[in-house]
Amino acid sequence: FHNQSYDYSNLTASDVDCSDAFWKECTSDYCAKQNAATEHAGKVMSIPYLISAISSPPLGFLVDKIGRRAKIAALASFLLFIVHFTLAVSPASPILPLVGQGIAYSFYAAVIWPSVPLTVEKRYTGTAFGVITSVQNIGLSIFPLIIAAIYSASDNRYIPNVELFFTACAGVGVLLGLILNRLDRRHGGKLNGTTIDEREVDENRDEGDEYFSPLPIS
Fold this sequence. Notes:
Elements: H1 21-26, H2 28-45, H3 47-66, H4 69-89, H5 95-119, H6 125-153, H7 161-186, H8 195-206
Helix pairs in contact: 3-5, 4-5, 4-7
């Protein structure tokens, strides 16, 4: 240090760099609290992924037993709608909404991927998985750009506008889930069927029956 004291009249949090030796020394209390807050935030944000890692296998087993895939997909979207709307408008702790997000994600994973062989002819199963993966990766590449634009337009704040965007996306998911259930009823209820119904589907598939497919296969 060149001086015994430094006076910053307009100092803000963005001016302090705790990785710099100067700031780390003269703002030790602030930097300690910042590091503790960052660590705590990381633990909180890991909740959905931890819940998904633990609950996905038993939820997948449950879906194998009860079916109801299209209904669960719609309910998972509705749960995400509640989660993101709560995060957008409520000043309460985000822990409970993030638990709900993890549960919704787990249910989605348990019903979406197993639904492909039930709705697509066996010879096109690989193509269907490829299309789904491609659409997923398109979303993963585009949505961060949209979120960054919303964040910048909201004075570098995620809440509430980013969460309201996620709420709108979840609302679209609910609508698509309702449409999916209607289509499933029209085509024999393959997605909402039970394990016994799936065995009958496999037997019919071997006989060459046609299946409802959401993919435009010619």
